[in-house]
Request: fold
Amino acid sequence: MTWDLVSPRKGDGKPAQLSPEQAAAAAMVAEAKARGLALTGPDGLLKLFTKNVLETALNEEMTEHLGHEKNQADPGRDSVNVRNGARPKTVISDAAGEVRIEVPRDRESTFEPQIVKKRQRRLTDVDQVVLSLYAKGMTTGDISAHFNEIYGASVSKETISRITDKVIAEMQEWANRPLDAIYAAVFIDAIHVKIRDGQVANRPVYAAIGVTVDGHKDVLGLWMGVGGEGAKFWMSVLVDLKNRGVQDVFFLVCDGLKGLPDTVANVWPQTVVQTCIVHLIRNTFRLAARQHWDEIKRDIKPIYTAPNPGAALAALDELEEKWKAKYRAMIRLWRNAWEEFVPFLDYDVEIRRMICSTNAIESLNARYRRAIRARGHFPTEQAAMKCLYLVTRSLDPTRTGRARWTMRWKPVIDAFAITFGDRWPGAETY
Reply:
C-alpha cells in the first residue's frame, strides 16, 4: 500500500511516496496542527503520540489474548470471555512526562498486558534515568525536582527510593559472585561515610580492585566496616575474596597500613605486600617545612628510583645523615615503612611503574567521595552501600577507560608472566 504526499517532489512534479511509518507521523503532525498542539510540552504532540502508540499496542495484545477483534467474536467459540471496557491509568515516560492512557479490560480479568504491565507506573527508561542520576551524585530530592522541571512529571522522593531499592538484590549477587583464581595485582583502600545510626558517625567502607592476568581491571567488592580502618577487618575482606575463588595474588598494594603484611601472609603466603610510594612521599612532605620541600624532593628521589634495594638503602642513609637533626620523624617514617617499601625494587621497571602507587583505586575513591558529599550522610548502612554500588555500576559506560587500562598493562603482563612463571596460569605452554 502506498501513501500520497501532499506536496510534489522537486524536479519531476510527481507526488512522493511515504512508508506507513512516515504517513502515520505525517497524520499525527497534521492532527496536532489542526488542534493547535505544540510538538513538546505538557499537552504536546509527543504526549499524544505516546498515548496512541501505547493504547494501540494494548488493544492488539487484548485481541491476541481473546483471539478476535472487537465485536467480531465467533458465536461458536468455547470461551465466553470478551472485552469489558477500559480503565484509565497514568504512566510516566522519560520523553513525554505523565501520559494518561486507557487500558482495555476483559470480562474474566485474565488479560495480562505486557507493554504496560499491571501496577506498572513508570516506563522502563524512567527507572534507568533515575538510577543513572542517583549514581552521578544527585539526591532523591534533586532527581524529583529534575523530573518536574524537565519532563513535567511528578515523581516523589519515596518513589525514587523504591526505584533505587530494586538494585539491592543485584548488589548482593554482585558482592557474592565468583572471582578469578589468580590476580596480577590487587589494590586496596578504604573511604569513610557518615551513617545516621542513632547519631551520625563515620564508618569505613573497604574497596578492592583486582587486575587479572589478561590485564583487565575489576572492582572486586565493597565491605562496610566498623570503627576505624584496621588490619583486623582487612583479614575478613581477604578471606571473603579467597572464599570466592581467589587462590593467588602476586602483589597487594596498600597505603602502608600497620599489621597488614602479616594479615595477607595468613591468606596468601606468597603475596608481596607493597606500600604506596606516592603516599609515602606525601607523608614525607607533611613532616617537613615547606621551605625545605624542593631540597628534600631531590634527596628522596634516589631512594625510590634506585636500581636495587642496596642502592636504595645507601640513599636512605645519606638522607638520614643530612636531615636527622632537623626532621627525625621523617627519617623514622621511612625506616618504619622500609620492609613494605623495598619489595618493588627487585622487579622489572614495567612492574615497578604499575605497582608503586594506589592511584588505580584512588581514582575510584574520588568518584565515591563525590557521591557521598552530595548526600552528607546516609540513614542506614544499606543506603550507603546502595549509593556506592550504583557509582560502581555506572563506571566507564563507553568502556573506553577499560580499553586504555588494558593497553597500559599489556607490557606489564608480559613482565609478570616471565617473573612469576612458576605461578602463572598455563606457564607450561610458554
Residues 165 and 281 are 42 Å apart (CA to CA). The first strand starts at residue 3 and ends at 8.
